[in-house]
Amino acid sequence: MSTFHGVIVPMVTPFKRDSAQSINFCAADQLIEKLIGSGVSGIFIFGSNGEFHLCSHEERIRFTKHVVQKVGGRLPVYVGTGACSTNEACNLSREAEALGADALSVVNPYFTQISDSEIVRYYERVAASVKIPIILYNIPKSTGMNLSAEVVSKIAPIENIKGIKDSSGNVENLAGYIEAAYGNDMDVLVGSDGKISKGYAMGATGAIAGTANLITDVVVGLFSALESGKTESAKMLQAEIEPLRDILHKGSTPAVLKRSLELAGIPVGPAREPVSDLSGFLDASIMSMLDHYGIEHI
């Protein structure tokens, strides 16, 4: 039985258009209800799309408390608690657990290039600080370091390490994780939305899919088709993610995704500075993309 399964959404953190770009809790509630209503398997806050690296410790705690209370046990809430500092990661993890998080996503330290043994020690310390499950998060384009399958095989036996999200986009890397997870109580989750079908065929149990913030029905439908063995339907739905993916790279993460949600009527606001506000810049292209999906826009 998988601990992590289905479509988990790395939810954007809504901000207001005020001088502080403060968190918009009302918009968060609107997005949460949309996601739950579309049948997602979990909500993950403070991932890359959640701009964890641009939020203060206090904001992360306050927003975690709000989301957990709003979701109210209707589905699991996962919280990103990784940090450059082991102590900070442990402190955030303990606080998120105390607030009711169902599991944690922990990215490896970034900026500083550390050794494999230091990565293992980092995860040992964070795992020991809490009792709830932990998902390792591999995103080498942002951390500057790829978690090797060899390192993952050393971390996998830790009792509450229950999953790994791979956003490398490298299928061989994903295969290495699936092999490392074999025999351990550990799930492998696809973090590259263009490879959900391929990852599922290899043995991944789910996807943490940023595109599901907007085209939730498409991504949930894709996973349902994969599980039902509806090959042609899955092929069509996998391809149907591409019009959104094609436009996301035209701005820094998650500016285009947030503007798309905003034009679709969910006022998640801009990405936080230093990422530029895209208001107006790509609107025509975004609205054309929304039209493709039949999503009403303002």
Automatic annotation (TrEMBL):
Which keywords does the record carry? Lyase, Schiff base
The record's listing under Pfam families reads: DHDPS
UniProt-annotated catalytic positions = 137 (proton donor/acceptor), 165 (schiff-base intermediate with substrate)
Binding annotation for pyruvate: 208
Annotated Gene3D superfamilies: Aldolase class I (3.20.20.70)
Gene Ontology process terms (BP): small molecule metabolic process
Classification via CDD domains = DHDPS-like
What are this entry's molecular-function GO terms? 4-hydroxy-tetrahydrodipicolinate synthase activity
User: What is the protein name for this chain?
Assistant: Dihydrodipicolinate synthetase
Q: Which organism is it from?
A: Coriobacterium glomerans (strain ATCC 49209 / DSM 20642 / JCM 10262 / PW2)
